[in-house]
C-alpha cells in the first residue's frame, strides 16, 4: 500500500536520509497535455445560479492547486505543461499546434517553482493574445495536433529510467471525437497513427491518463476514440468516465488521487531485545487529510527558508558562540555537562521502535488510542531473518492474546505505542501500531 502522503503521512515522525534517497529514486515525472481548442473556452455549465466558468478555467485551477500541493509535499518531482490545438507553437520538434509553457530559466520538464505557479495561474488573461486557440484537426488538413502533442510529451519524458521514475501523461479535454470534422480514409489513417503513437509511448514505460470534461449539452463519450487510445474495454469504460459537470473541488480531488504515489511510509529497526533487532516497514491506513503546516520557500530555488538565531554581546556587539558546556545547579553545586553528554542523557532508546513488554488485550481500551494507526510488516532487505522472527512474535501474541508496548519515534522523544497482532483472510501477519496515552502503566511481561 503506497500513499504519500506527503501530507497524509506528515505526522509519522521525521524522515531520515535513507527515506530522502528513496523518494528521489521513486520520483514522478508528469506532462500535462491541455486541450486549447475553442470548445474548451465555452461555459462549463448552463445553470444560471452557477458562475460562468469555462472548462479551460477549471483545468488551470486544477493544475495550479496540484502544483501548490506538489511543491511542498513532493518538490523533487518534475512537471511540464503543454497546450495543444494552439495557434502558436513552442517545442523543440517545431511541430504545429503544440505550445510547451515555461517560465524563466527553468527547463521544460523540471521541478515546479513558485514563479511557474504564479504565472500559470494568470495565464487566462494573456492566453489568447500570446498563444491563441484553434481547431487543430480540420477537414482538408493533414495536420494532427494530438499526434504532435503525444510526440512532444514523449520527448519531454525521455530522461530518467522507467525502473526508478514514474512517467505519466495527463490529457485534459472536453472533445471526445477530435477527428469528427474529417471523414473517409484520412480519418481512419489519423486515428490509427495516433493510437499507435500512444501504444509506442506505453511500450516505453509511459502511462497515459485522460481526465475528460463533459459539455453542458453532451456527455463525454469515451467509446468514440479515447478508450482505444488509453487501452480500455468493456466495463472499464463506464467505470473510468467521470460524471458530467464536475465541480472544481471534485476535479481537484480526482487529480490528487491520480497524483498520489503509493509506497511505504518508512523503514524502521525494531529492537526486540538488546541483542535481537529486525527490520520492518510501516504503512499507513486510509485516513482523512488535514491541512499541512505552512512552509516558506525561496521564490527561485524552492529551498525552504530557515530561521537562525544568534546571540549578540551587549557590550561589544560581537556574535557569541554556542557554549560548549551546559550546567545545572544541584545542592548549591554547579554540575557541568558537555553537549554530547546531554544528548546521551536525553536518549531513551537507540532504535526508532523499541519493545518494552506485553499486556493482555483486554487492558487496551478505545480511549487509549490518540492518533490514526499504521501497520508494520517485516522486511529481509537489510536484516536477513527479520520475517522469521516477526512471524514467531506475531504467532505468540495471537495465541496468548497479548499486545506489545513499545517506544516509537525520535530516540530522544519517543511515543508510547501499542502493537496489536492481526491477520488478514490470506493469513498475512502484520501488527497494528497505535499511539496511546503516555500515562499508560507499563508492565513488562513475556508473551
Briefly, what is this?
The protein is α+β, with helices and mostly antiparallel strands.
Task: Give an overview in words.
- With about 450 residues, the chain is an alpha+beta fold.
- The protein folds into two domains: about 25-260, Rossmann fold (3-Layer(aba) Sandwich); about 260-285 and about 310-445, Ku70, Chain: A, Domain 2.
- It has eleven helices and 16 strands.
- It has a seven-stranded mixed barrel. Strands 3-2-1-4-5 form a five-stranded mixed β-sheet.
- Strand 14 (about 400-410) and strand 15 (about 415-425) form a beta hairpin.
- The radius of gyration is 28 Å and the shape is extended.
- This is Ku domain-containing protein.
- Its main location: nucleus.
- Keywords: ATP-binding, DNA damage, DNA recombination, DNA repair, DNA-binding, Helicase, Hydrolase, Nucleotide-binding, Nucleus.
List the helices and strands and how they pair.
Elements: H1 17-25, E1 28-35, H2 55-73, E2 78-84, E3 98-101, H3 114-121, H4 127-130, H5 145-156, E4 166-173, H6 184-203, E5 206-212, H7 226-230, H8 235-240, H9 248-259, E6 266-271, E7 277-284, E8 311-312, E9 319-320, E10 325-330, E11 333-338, H10 339-346, E12 353-360, E13 374-378, H11 386-400, E14 402-410, E15 413-423, E16 429-435
Parallel strand pairs: 1-2, 1-4, 4-5, 6-12
Antiparallel strand pairs: 2-3, 6-7, 7-13, 8-9, 10-11, 12-14, 13-16, 14-15, 15-16
Helix pairs in contact: 2-3, 2-9, 5-6
